[in-house]
Every structure is written in C-alpha cells, then in structure tokens.
Design brief:
It is a single chain. This protein is an all-alpha fold and 72 residues long. Helix 1 runs antiparallel to helix 2.
Length: 72
C-alpha cells in the first residue's frame, strides 16, 4: 500500500466513526421516531458518500501510479 493511500483511509475511518458516534446522541434523547429515521438516513448517506469518495480516491491514486510507469 502506498503512503498516499494511508491518509485518505485514516481520514475516512475517523470521519465515519465521529459521525456515527455523534448520531448516537439523537438515538439516546427522546425525540419522535420520524426524526430519528431522518437522522439515520442522513448519517447513512454521509457514511456511504465518504466510502464512495475513498474508493474513488484510491482508484485515482492507482491510475496516477500506472501513468507514472508509462512515462518511462
């Protein structure tokens, strides 16, 4: 694994964990079920987007590596 791939992975894991832990607050306090479902959908959407962006970034890094080899 390249060094350039480590930081996006670390950032993504930290971001998803922080958002997940923050969302627990909404499930502990007493609020209507509809709001809890909306919060859950938003959190799930954020986590899915972050994972998608991580995969896209890793593909870009691999393509850059392949393009660097083709220069020589």
């Amino acid at each position: 694994m390249k060094k350039a791939m480590i930081m996006p992975i670390v950032f993504s894991v930290i971001f998803v964990c922080m958002v997940g832990l923050y969302s627990l607050i909404f499930f502990i306090i007493k609020i209507p079920l509809l709001i809890k479902i909306i919060v859950f959908l938003i959190i799930t959407g954020l986590a899915a987007t972050m994972i998608y962006l991580l995969l896209q970034r890793n593909r870009e890094l691999k393509e850059e590596e392949e393009n660097d080899f083709s220069k020589y």
